[in-house]
Amino acid sequence: MARQYHLISADSHILEPPHLWTTYMPKKFHDKVPRVVPDGEGGEAWQFAPNIPPAPIGIYASAGRKHEDVRWTGVTFAAANQGNFRAEPRLQEQDQDGVDAEVLFGSARMMSHFFSDPDPEFQLAGVQAYNNWLAEEFVKAAPDRLIGLGAMPALSVEAAIKEMERCLKLGMRGVWLNTMPSVGSTIRPDDDKFWEAAQALGVPVHFHVRMMRQVTKPKPKGKRGDDLTGLATVGAADFIIDMSEIITSGVHDRFPDLTWVAVETGSGWIPYVLEQLDDRWWRNRSWLPVKLKHEPSFYYRRNWRSSIMIDHYAVKNRHIIGVDNLMWSTDYPHHGCDWPESRRVVDEMFREVVADERHKICAGNAAKLYRLQ
Q: Cα(124)–Cα(127) distance, rounded to whole angstroms?
């Protein structure tokens, strides 16, 4: 009997476990891999490089904690929900939350460690180690509930295509880009080879929060926790530019069957941005260098999907955005999740939404995109 899906999180996360890098990367790189160290306040953190302050795991493993107890430091791998990094407990945690399946992303800060290294072999080994671990220790356990996305390297278009093809053989159902395939943050003609390959393979491409603006070593910072502006707005603020550049580049005319997914960017801002893009395109289309066949909003509704968490404005404006374009998500196990209260939160947010539209946004659209039906 086919599984029935009622809640699918289109944006959830794993927490890379301590053994990942030494188990899945060649020994010659073990002196450079991230290591778990004390965070100085009773918890644990990732040490990416000797000259970089350790990065605590706190808010990345905050599922189930009271809001007043969420903080960057003081959390250990042993004390965190074990479903952060183990498949069987993760399935149990899904059941506790009433979630039938999750689309799984890794940590951008972890990928940044590998992207910023000048050794391309080390970067590729790190990306492949993550993909191999996710496929072997998560996706295999329940491919109809643990939906893996392959992380793409930031090396070249050719390297990204090769890794995408490899990830499909591992059982991944999409790819996750932190930079454009040509490595920059802005779409370029060189990227077309990747889009062509992804379209031919039927692979949706995902952008999480934003594109990395530059691939460099993280700057040393003091203790985190005071960046409310970033926590609340960075996805929308940055991705408005990213998505607008992609839509107005003409790429959707060249690859009309490719699906693009924006996650943890929010969606309540989309009606205004599409309205402004359409208006400016119409007023200036006679001289703009890129000639679009349709108005920008057409491409969003045909080619894009975007996720929501707490996003009442997106739900209220779902008919303007497109009921078929929205996908609910939890962000589990990060600080934005409501585990194990997702069903209650969904009921509150969708109280005035008819059943078939609620089902599409909460499960149906994701099930269709990831071929779960």
A: 5
Query: What is the rounded end-to-end Cα distance, in angstroms, of the chain?
Result: 11
Assess whether pLDDT exceeds 80 at residue 199: yes
From the number of C-beta atoms within 10 Å of its C-beta (0-12, 13-18, 19+), residue 292 rates as: middle
The stretch 86-112 carries a mean pLDDT of 97
236 or 106, which is more confident: 106
How far is Cα 265 from Cα 73, in angstroms, rounded to an integer?
25
Q: Which of 330, 364, 275 is closest to 64 using CA atoms?
A: 330
pLDDT value of residue 209: 82
SS3 call for 328: strand
pTM of the model: 0.94
At residue 44, the 3 state secondary structure works out as strand
54 lies in a domain?
Answer: no
Q: What CATH number does residue 272 fall under?
A: 3.20.20.140
Helix, strand, coil percentages for the chain (3-state, nearest 5): 45, 10, 45
Q: How many domains does the chain have?
A: 1
Nearest to 90 by CA among 261, 366, 340: 340
Position 77 in a domain: no
In a domain, 49, yes or no: no
Q: For residue 52, is it within any domain?
A: no
Please give the angle made by the CA atoms of 201, 207 and 209, to the nearest 5 degrees: 165
Residue 342 has pLDDT above 70, yes or no: yes
Q: Give the span between the Cα atoms of 161 and 183, in whole angstroms.
A: 13
Secondary structure of residue 205 in the 3-state scheme:
strand
Which two tokens mark 247? Answer: 């839509």
Q: What is the mean pLDDT of the chain?
A: 93
Tell me the residue range of the domain where 307 lies.
8-37+84-369
Residues 6+ apart with CB under 8 A from 335: 59, 60, 62, 70, 231
Q: What is the pLDDT of residues 16-29, one digit of tens each?
A: 999 999 999 999 99
Helix (H, G, I), strand (E, B) or coil at 368: helix
Res 213: pLDDT: 55
